[in-house]
Write a structure and sequence with these properties.
Layout: H1 2-11, H2 16-23, E1 38-45, E2 55-64, E3 67-78, H3 88-91, E4 101-102, H4 104-115, E5 119-122, H5 125-138, E6 148-150, H6 151-161, H7 173-179, H8 190-209, H9 216-221
Helix pairs in contact: 2-4, 6-8
Length: 222
């Protein structure tokens, strides 16, 4: 009880949008996978350096009841002063593109409001989560509190259970999409990659749960 009091006391000094996000975790997550709100997301960045590089865009989709809720999506482009010409070859986002761009803080506000206490899903999730956390840190905010699933790790587990073992291999989004016959639509955009990842995630869920409505802990066990 004392520990909770200190936690609440600390959060009193944080912005209202963070308190709203943090407060969503007071609601307990459902046990069954079908009832859980997953948010599959991706970031496009100026590079891979967590200290120097910045997020250029964030894209996300809600997955629930084994469906991608197309109408419930999130996409923002961030105004950044840092720019790496080399990454344009990958994502195509350049300074003069006519996207409506918002500040990093506004993007974080929108993202936190969108995800709430959902379980986050991403491909090589550690990178995307750390980029978001670094952005939060720049604005004096704590790290994300959500549970996270990584489609790259989950796919590797399906290979192990199928005795197709290559423990040292890291699978790219393209390789897994090809294995599942998924078209690479809008590849290397945050929303496009999030959508492809969502399709992969649904296939992985079905394979790991063997078509049953299993408890979330069964997925994390993998």
């Amino acid at each position: 009880m004392i520990r909770k009091w200190f936690k609440n006391k600390d959060e009193e000094d944080l912005p209202g949008f963070w308190q709203n996000y943090s407060g969503s975790f007071e609601e307990k997550l459902p046990q069954k996978v079908s009832e859980i709100r997953f948010v599959v997301f991706d970031t496009e960045t100026t590079g891979f350096d967590f200290e120097e590089d910045r997020i250029l865009s964030i894209g996300a989709f809600r997955v629930q009841k084994n469906q991608i809720e197309i109408g419930d999506n999130f996409e923002v482009f961030l105004a950044q002063t840092r720019f790496n010409p080399e990454t344009v070859k990958i994502h195509g986002i350049i300074k003069k593109e006519k996207f409506e761009k918002i500040s990093e803080l506004e993007a974080l506000k929108g993202f936190l409001n969108y995800i709430q206490n959902s379980i986050l899903v991403a491909h090589h999730a550690g990178f995307d989560v750390k980029m978001i956390n670094k952005a939060l840190e720049r604005h004096g905010l704590p790290k994300l509190r959500n549970k996270v699933l990584d489609t790259a790790a989950l796919y590797s587990k399906t290979r192990i259970t199928s005795n197709l073992i290559d423990r040292d291999k890291t699978y790219s989004l393209d390789e897994i999409a090809e294995a599942y016959n998924i078209d690479l639509i809008e590849r290397h955009t945050a929303a496009g990659d999030a959508y492809i990842t969502a399709l992969i995630f649904m296939k992985l869920l079905n394979r790991l749960s063997k078509g049953k409505d299993v408890a979330l802990k069964n997925i994390y066990r993998f």
